[in-house]
Specification:
Chain lengths: 117, 337
């Protein structure tokens, strides 16, 4: 499973990806808008895009665009990007399972939760 | 083909997807210097510039996609000899006194262009008209503290506006505000700061917050009397009624993006929050972020709290040797707000 991770998440994530998951970190040269990440992910066959902070998924039109493109949106709630990285790695197995049943997923400290549409 | 179209824009297929926009400029309207400056900007933006001569005959390149910048007499001539020509594509005697005027004119030309042919207009610090595009203005997702910081208002004022029905943020577990809410509150605060003797009507707040954007708008304005106005290139009109407005003391909403002080509160520049920090509603849900990146000011401040610069460089090695202190400071203010 390939996941595109936003630039705000630490660069070391790509090297620390657990087995069965490939992380690619967004590069600024590819564009800056939120929708640019979604279009790129869909074009390059990513399963979803990972953002920091649940409010990222509240950008108007994001979820609708993700639905149209058929990609998942994942947000990580954390006190800082390094904690977000730890949570993403720790919950990667749960995340894989959750993505089987939901397109919008929130990673918290102790659980991985579906987000409503 | 591109060169051919440049030389012979009249040869372009009307049904195709033209990449170049023909623009005719009548030089008798403008001084040579102004004409040259305008022509350079238009060409840089991807337009083809031609001179329209006098007489009743129109050149072959003159067509329905042409935008004309001219004197009133030329406007009359075009409309009488080319009755099908769209009036909105004729721009008469534009004011061109400063950079902002040029930027507004380019935006006006762009909005007058038909079909999918558009200019490449760079957003500068003095031209924020791109923000009025419906696909931009309605974006953004902010927490209450962030709105308070960006709009230079207290949280209690924001909640009071909600209670009075002036603002309607989304409630999704927490309260989520849009960029339009930030602009609405900030404009009201700015008017209070710059017109301390006036009583600023709150009517502008719901109008600006609920404004759906307007791609043709080159300027949005507000008055202390509660009016919100739009200029689509042909003067100020009331946003809600469409009636033309004359002789009102209008504040351009663009101006409210500049830093200002209201009491003890200091509002940063809204779009260029600090030297290395910027904000755009389409980028990272509108959060202030390090210029030309997707790293938020808040994330930098969070990492700074965790372990100073070492933590920041550990997460973002690409920031080595980059100036980020002002962005960290913005992030600290956002966290504290």
């Amino acid at each position: 499973m390939k996941l595109l991770i936003d630039t705000v998440l630490p660069a070391t994530l790509t090297a620390d990806a657990p087995a069965g998951i490939d992380f690619e970190r967004w590069k600024k040269s590819d564009g800056q808008n939120d929708s640019d990440l979604l279009y790129y992910a869909a074009k390059e066959g990513f399963r979803g895009v990972v953002f920091l902070d649940r409010i990222s998924l509240e950008q108007p039109g994001m979820r609708q665009l993700a639905k149209e493109l058929g990609i998942a949106l994942i947000a990580i709630d954390a006190s800082d990007p390094i904690q977000a990285r730890e949570r993403l790695i720790r919950h990667s197995a749960r995340l894989r399972r959750k993505l089987g049943e939901s397109q919008f997923v929130l990673i918290l400290g102790s659980e991985v939760r579906s987000m409503g549409e | 083909m591109l060169l051919y179209e440049q030389r012979w824009p009249g040869a372009r297929s009307a049904s195709g997807n033209p990449r170049l926009a023909p623009v005719a400029v009548l030089d008798k309207t403008l001084t040579a210097c102004t004409l040259l400056r305008l022509a350079v900007r238009l060409v840089d933006a991807g337009a083809v510039v031609r001179q329209l001569g006098g007489g009743n005959l129109f050149p072959n390149w003159f067509g329905p996609q042409t935008v004309v910048i001219c004197r009133p007499q030329t406007r009359s001539r075009i409309l009488s000899k080319q009755p099908g020509f769209a009036e909105r594509q004729i721009i008469v005697d534009p004011r061109l006194e400063n950079e902002k005027d040029y930027a507004l004119l380019l935006r006006q030309v762009d909005s007058a262009l038909q079909g999918r042919s558009h200019l490449r207009i760079a957003t500068s610090e003095s031209d924020h008209s791109i923000l009025w595009d419906p696909e931009v203005y309605t974006l953004g997702a902010y927490r209450t503290g962030e709105v308070a910081f960006l709009a230079s208002a207290s949280k209690s004022s924001l909640y009071n506006f909600v209670k009075r029905g002036l603002l309607q943020p989304r409630r999704i577990g927490e309260t989520v505000w849009a960029f339009s809410d930030v602009v609405a509150v900030r404009t009201w605060q700015y008017l209070k700061a710059t017109q301390p003797k006036e009583r600023i009507k709150t009517d502008i707040i719901p109008i600006l917050a609920q404004f759906a954007g307007d791609r043709d708008a080159v300027r949005i304005g507000a008055t202390s009397f509660g009016d919100v106005l739009v200029d689509r290139g042909d003067g100020w009109a009331d946003l809600q009624t469409g009636n033309l407005v004359l002789d009102l003391p209008i504040t351009e909403v663009d101006d409210t993006f500049r830093p200002f002080e209201l009491g003890k509160r200091k509002a940063p520049h809204l779009l260029h929050t600090s030297k290395h920090t910027e904000l755009h509603p389409a980028i990272i849900h509108g959060a202030p972020h390090l210029k030309d990146s997707r790293i938020t000011a808040r994330a930098l401040a969070q990492l700074h709290i965790r372990g100073g610069e070492k933590s920041i460089l550990s997460a973002y090695p690409e920031l080595k040797d980059m100036e980020i202190r002002d962005t960290i400071s913005i992030g600290q203010q956002l966290i504290a707000a």
